[in-house]
Design goal:
Number of helices: 8
Structural class: alpha/beta
Strand content: 15-25%
């Protein structure tokens, strides 16, 4: 080490332990991706074209190579049509096509769906959680209409659950209701969860959460690390009752006690979650 005051030599030794990562993956890992910038980054203008799916396959292979075994498919790729009599029908072709890209890696174990609900006024601090609206093609006019969630969700949920069962994907699908419910809207989340469970009782419900007030209405709870640390005993008790517990990190500093992946933190903090 050299400085203006002079030169100092310090002894340094490094121990490198032999480590072979097994091909079997015992940790469930998901890292959400986005296709929204395919045009910006790769010049791919036509969504769902051959070149679009070629790039998606590159994403899937890269995720699999880095030991991710859970992937995401948005619910808005499900096609919805309304007949003259008002009856709704659902086309899962695009959903299946996207999912199959990831299944074809042979290294994915679970499928995550997009959300079906949203915060009131699309604001995180709202106490309300309501169903999203849906774009629906009117078969008679050929036009796209917007229908309220209450007019679509019951038949969509039942059809979706039935489709997953037919594909053999039901037991490995994780269904999102609304990401990151907290103390102030946990009751609204529970009501929405019960609503969805009514029409699709075999869907496995999963969300990132920041509260313990909904642990009786979820199958896979994913607390943020600081929330997990704060209410550790409550999460442990829920786990003993059969709730599966994951954890997640976010791109903000949560204190030195909690590992994170932000680039300006000590490298050890981003390594600890995988230790």
């Amino acid at each position: 080490m050299i400085s203006q005051q002079g030169e100092v030599k310090l002894p340094l030794s490094v121990t490198v332990y032999p480590l072979t990562l097994p091909s079997t993956r015992n940790l469930k890992v998901t890292e959400w991706y986005s296709t929204g910038d395919f045009e910006k980054f790769y010049g791919i203008k036509e969504e769902y074209s051959d070149v679009w799916f070629s790039m998606l396959r590159k994403y899937a292979d890269n995720m699999a190579e880095h030991r991710q075994n859970v992937f995401y498919v948005p619910m808005d790729v499900v096609g919805i049509q309304k007949a003259v009599n008002g009856r709704l029908s659902f086309d899962f072709t695009r959903f299946d096509q996207i999912a199959q890209v990831f299944w074809d890696t042979k290294k994915m174990d679970y499928l995550e769906t997009g959300e079906i609900a949203r915060f009131g006024n699309n604001a995180w601090f709202s106490p309300d959680i309501i169903l999203q609206n849906f774009k629906v093609k009117n078969i008679e006019t050929g036009k796209i209409e917007t229908l309220e969630g209450k007019d679509v969700a019951p038949s969509l949920l039942a059809s979706f659950e039935s489709h997953l069962r037919e594909k053999g994907w039901l037991s490995k699908t994780l269904f999102h209701i609304k990401d990151e419910p907290s103390m102030h809207n946990s009751q609204a989340w529970r009501e929405m969860s019960a609503y969805i469970h009514k029409y699709a009782p075999d869907l496995v419900r999963m969300d990132a959460i920041e509260t313990t007030n909904l642990l009786n209405d979820i199958e896979v709870a994913v607390p943020k690390l600081d929330a997990f640390g704060t209410w550790y005993e409550s999460y442990r008790k829920a786990q003993e009752k059969g709730v599966e517990i994951w954890f997640y990190t976010v791109g903000i500093y949560q204190g030195s006690l909690f590992p994170n992946k932000t680039i300006d933190m000590p490298v050890i903090n981003s390594r600890l979650p995988l230790a």
